[in-house]
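hey so i finally got around to running the thing on that chain from the lab meeting. sorry it took forever, my laptop kept dying and i had to restart like 3 times. anyway pasting the input first so we r on the same page abt which one it is
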Amino acid sequence: MLGPKTKNLDQIRKQGCVVSLIIFCLFCIPLTLNSVQMEMKINLKVWRQKSPESKGGFETYQVNANEHMSFLEMMDVLNQDLIDQKKEPVAFDHDCREGICGACSMVINGRAHGPNSGTTTCQLHMRFFQDGDTVVVEPFRARSFPVIKDLVVDRSSFDRIIQAGGYISVNTGQAIDGNAIPIEKDRAGKAFDAAACIGCGACVAACPNGSAMLFTAAKASHLGLLPQGEVEQTKRVANMVAQMDLEGFGRCSNVGACEAECPKGISLDNIARLNRHYAASILSSEA
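ok and heres what got predicted. didnt touch it at all, straight out
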């Protein structure tokens, strides 16, 4: 004969088993089903160019991918296939693969960074393509972004624009307290939004004129909107715009393609702000 306590323990164990089974059915089985990878064959047309001086052209490849891969992981698979065949892999830029560094710059099916808005190439996943799709991959096209090899372009012109004025002149030493200078929330928010620019160059690639105005405006705005950078803003803008023109970038004609293709959603308002400061620099004797 089992005592009342033993019977209660048996009932609790049975109930616990039932609850565990329900939890397994609700959570584990769907996760297992979702982990099944849908295989797909992608036809790639990739721009190949051995050097800046050589003539480039498209080459066709077929890659076995799955929907959970990022676009760069799919390119890794292609390169591994080429290496296994004793062929030269496709050169392309990449670094963090987290949508932060701006290195992974490709034009995919005619759009900078691919079909998804607000997405860098490394954050684009193959689930947005279909089995059997033909995907055209080429480098950013702009006179100021010469091709180095395959999909790699020289974006050092951006660095020189930053060197011309994208900084704040301060005495070095111990960092001051972050709240020492009160800044209005709206102004701080606009500066933060401008600082989100990762310098990828999608704005230049998307612009029919090859203009770098959105990049330059973002870099000038995120400094000039803050009290620490406001003092030098007029001179900063004049120097950065002068360097931008020297690099051979085109003029802005307010098409708006730069904002549409920017993976960080940098606003055209920054260009308007840059134009105001540039006009002030022309009228100012300080510039």
